Amino acid sequence: MSLVARILEEAGIPTVILGSAIDIVEHCGVPRFLFTDFPLGNPCGVPWDRDMQHAILGQALDLFEQAKGPRTTVRAPFSWDGDVWRDQYMEVRPEDREEMLRKGEENRKARAEKRARS
Amino acid sequence: MAEPIGYMERSRLYYQAQGFEKAYQWARFDEVPFTRLKKPLSESRLGIVTTAATYSRTAKDFRAVDSGSTVEAPERLFGDDLSWDKKATHLDDRESYLPLIQLENAVAEGRLGSLSPRFYCAPTNYSQRETLTEEGPEILRLCQEDEVDVALLVPL
Predict the structure, then answer these.
(1) Total count of domains within chain A
(2) What is the distance between the alpha carbons of residues B102 and A54, in angstroms, rounded to a whole number?
(3) What angle do CA A43, B121, B113 make, to 5 degrees?
(4) What domain range includes position A110?
(5) Smallest Cβ distance to A54: which of B4, B88, B105?
(6) CB-CB neighbors (< 8 A) of A53 in chain B
């Protein structure tokens, strides 16, 4: 999505990225970024929490006006309920090694098939 | 406050454990473009771009740029084939990743001029070259067709 931001911006369309993977977005470098420190999947707020979603969208809109230059990051002042997800995401446990290698083999096969078809 | 997850490092270790030998090279640029608003937000048309799909896909399915109506919007979008935290959360509430109700509210409040009649789906393919030369330009074309002034990009 960071690459799409570049293309739109170069064509004269200001962008705001609203997302939760701050390291990836800042590594790439984007014009404006509203960071929500949530599990990947719900960058616009906790599901069904309309008040939080309203506030976050408001901040995203504000950022269009407030950013003075590229690489502007603003952190939304909300947190997810609990931190268990932080350790669990893409966790590599020793007991899962074999299963992960099998999954990797499947992935490589799927990618090769996809490449052959495109 | 907890430290944000380092997704680049986390995914490097994860795919290494899956037997992938070469680590993914994340996009990086020294120069970042920046365009100022041409008119007030209250007079601007906003287009929203998501990485979610309008239909249920698997990792084997071909991904392409897509769009859907913001007027008669689908109740939900799909992302089974994408990397996001499927253990911690879900995509059952569309507003948590495609906030069309909130955008319509912003229009009603006068904060935003209008919402583009379509939302746009970026396919997030593995190839950065394809994103830069094919998918990105196609999203731009759709935005220009809909006379979008500003774009909100929401990756899952």
Answers:
(1) 1
(2) 6
(3) 75
(4) 2-117
(5) B105
(6) 95-96, 99, 102
Q: How far is B151 from chain A (nearest CA, A)?
A: 5
Question: Testing the interface with B: which of A89, A100, A115, A118 to mutate, by most B Cβ within 10 A?
Answer: A89
Per-residue pLDDT of chain B (156 residues; tens, 9 = 90+): 789 999 999 999 999 999 998 888 999 999 999 999 999 999 999 999 999 999 998 877 888 899 999 999 999 999 998 999 999 999 999 999 999 999 999 999 999 999 999 999 999 877 888 898 999 999 999 999 999 999 999 999
pTM over 0.80: yes
Minimum-distance CB partner of B99 among A37, A53, A114: A53
Q: What one-letter code names the amino acid at A118?
A: S
Q: Where are the domains of chain B?
A: 38-154
Q: How many CB atoms lie within 10 A of CB B18?
A: 19
Measured from the Cβ of residue A80, the count of other Cβ atoms closer than 10 Å reads 19
Cα gap A31→B107, rounded to integer Å? 24
Residue A48 Cα distances to A11, A33, B59, B152, angstroms: 35, 23, 28, 20
